[in-house]
Amino acid sequence: MKTDLIEKYAPILCGPTHPVVRDPRLLMDASGDVKIYYAPFEYINPSARLVLVGITPGPTQMDNANNEARRALHAGKSSMEAIHAAKSVGAFSGKPLRSNLINQLNHWGFHKWLGLGDSADLFSTSRHLVQTTSLLRYPTFVKDKDYRGSPDMTKHPLLRKYLLENFVTERN
Fold first, then answer.
1. Please, what is the end-to-end C-alpha distance for the chain in angstroms?
2. What digits encode the pLDDT tens for the residues 78-105?
3. DSSP labels for 61-127?
4. Is residue 141 within 8 Å of 37, Cβ to Cβ?
5. Domain for residue 150, yes or no?
6. 113 and 119 Cβ atoms separated by less than 8 Å
7. Which end of the chain is more exposed for a tag (fewer CB within 10 A), N or C?
8. Burial of 14 (0-12, 13-18, 19+ CB in 10 A)
């Protein structure tokens, strides 16, 4: 797993001013109204038994992941450890997103299939069983609002590039 992106953005993540959602210092790429920002979501769980796929991290996930990476790097953790910690904290985080997801997973019995008492364990003591990812790995916004599927990521050149370079090639 590459750590070049977190190393590139570490001075911003760890700087005196906390990065914020849609922080121009974290802008990775843009095309017209579409902007893609950095947040450390590169970690791929090699022992996952379940893969949860979202569309793209939103502002809450971006903020939570960046803050966790900042804490980890300030604590002297390696880039790889910071990426892992950031994804563990940031993926599908925030209310009501995570609680709704856990309720859905419980409803469909995923926790039983995995031998867990509750699907909430996938985000704590049983994190090693899940790979969380997104079709667009990095926080994507259109007209500074959450990306919700428009423009079509398979047709928009920039979004298609990120879809193919990250999600399509993602494997452990």
1. 9
2. 999 999 999 999 999 999 999 999 999 9
3. HHHHHHHHHHHHHHTT--HHHHHHHHHHHHTT-STTHHHHHHHHHHHTTHHHHTT-S-GGGGGTTTG
4. yes
5. yes
6. no
7. C
8. middle
